[in-house]
Amino acid sequence: MTEQPVTAPAAPPVRIERDGVVATVVIDRPKALNALSPEVLRALADAFDRLASEGDAVRGVLVVGEGGRAFVAGADIRSLAELTPEEGAEAARLGHRVAAAIEAFPAPVIACVDGFALGGGLELALACDLIYATDASGFGQPEVRLGLIPGFGGTVRLPRAVGLPLAKELIFTGRRIDAETAERAGLVARRFTDREALLEGARATIAEVAENAWTAVALAKRVLVEAAGTPTERASELEVAGFEDAFRTTDMREGVAAFLEKREPRFSGR
């Protein structure tokens, strides 16, 4: 009998790496420039669901693309080519599911962009709380060049990030902007010379966040996400509700007591 060669199982397209309270979600499809296939989208949603189940053991998440050429170059166009309109809607809903999982995550999520963040890649980054980028990065929503429009939240979140006029210009033209322009527009929070400095800076930010009350950070994120784009009166009500909820936490009592007693707080995450 001839032995058949053993085929190694394919590596998962998304993996989670842990370093203390920091988790890194790595999109690992460098040959496809980390394109967002349905498999990748489902894996991303599952990764954030798993991390959320760990509570305050995870104080921040970095999202990175493997390979150095692209954070995420966009949706997987090959997987879109044969879809019916109804299947296209389902594909968009899957992208929105990922964005919702990121926005619901109770700790800050930083998109660490090194290379292209185009189409679905920019939309993924926009769902994160902060975008940090290297000087080599580029951003754009080129969907109209394929006869499409942004489908994973770009028409919603890009105007919030850069303002409606620039968002319209980028979406209508499909134009790309570099990291310096993106930083000036407010899309990129911080810019770094290279990938090593980018990741070091992102981890430093999470370390600084982790010194604070996890309960307060989670409440602040909840209010910021829910209030975005809502009328001022409604947004103010959301803030008041979050402020009230902070008074229900042990961390709030500890933080105020520590301030009055002139000592460092000992937050418990409750």
Itemize the secondary structure elements and their pairings.
Layout: E1 14-19, E2 22-27, H1 38-52, E3 60-65, E4 70-72, H2 77-80, H3 85-104, E5 109-113, E6 116-118, H4 120-127, E7 130-134, E8 138-140, H5 154-162, H6 164-173, E9 176-178, H7 179-185, E10 190-192, H8 195-210, H9 214-227, H10 232-246, H11 250-260
Parallel strand pairs: 2-3, 3-5, 4-6, 5-7, 6-8, 7-10
Antiparallel strand pairs: 1-2, 8-9
Helix pairs in contact: 1-3, 3-4, 4-5, 5-6, 9-10
Description:
- There is one protein chain.
- The chain has two domains: 14-210, 2-enoyl-CoA Hydratase, Chain A, domain 1, CATH 3.90.226; 214-260.
- Helices cover 48% and strands 16% of the residues.
- The chain has eleven helices and ten strands.
- The strands form two sheets. Strands 1-2-3-5-7-10 form a six-stranded mixed beta sheet, sandwiched between helices. The protein has a four-stranded mixed beta sheet with strand order 4-6-8-9.
- Strand 1 (14-19) and strand 2 form a beta hairpin.
What is the CATH-assigned architecture of the largest domain?
Alpha-Beta Complex
Tell me what portion of residues adopts beta-strand conformation: 15-25%
**What overall form do the CA principal axes indicate?**
globular
Count of folded domains = 2
Q: What kind of sheet is the major sheet? A: 6 strands, mixed
The SSE order reads EEHEEHHEEHEEHHEHEHHHH
Strand order of the largest sheet: 1-2-3-5-7-10
Kindly report the average pLDDT value: 93
| Rg result | 20 Å
End-to-end C-alpha gap: 63 Å
Number of helical segments with 4 or more residues: 11
CATH topology of the largest domain: 2-enoyl-CoA Hydratase, Chain A, domain 1
Low-confidence spans: pLDDT under 50, at least 5 residues? none
Q: What percent of the residues sit in helical stretches (DSSP H or I)?
A: 40-55%
